Amino acid sequence: MIIREMQIDDLDQVMPIEEELFSVPWSSVGFFSFLLRDDALFLVAEDQGEILGYCGVLMVLDQGDIVNVGVKSERQRQGVGRKLLNALIRKTEEKGVASLYLEVRAGNQAAISLYESLGFCRLGVRKGYYEEPKEDGITMCRS
Fold it and tell me: What is the pTM assigned to this prediction?
């Protein structure tokens, strides 16, 4: 498995993952617009031409906001997300990012555990942050 920057051609494989995992998925136009931005970095995990997962961050000065993390359901809990996030952390640090922030569904204990194992700490709760279904969001930070 390799971790590399997402390319526009990857959207053919990324979009089905996005639509499977999220009740309110991003559109391909949304991804496309972020891939063109200088302040955004999106990575994919690829194995023999198959995209297994992806993640992305928006960066402003020394802060980054992780906006999207997704791993194919059949490849979850196999280290794909951890490898993606470790690469994202390393690459953002190289760009001068000192703090990373994210929101995660309060009920997504697997993701929360992964983030905590990577050094993210809980900062607070955003009541009703997620829709479909309505759920609180946990704000986390890694400095």
Answer: 0.92
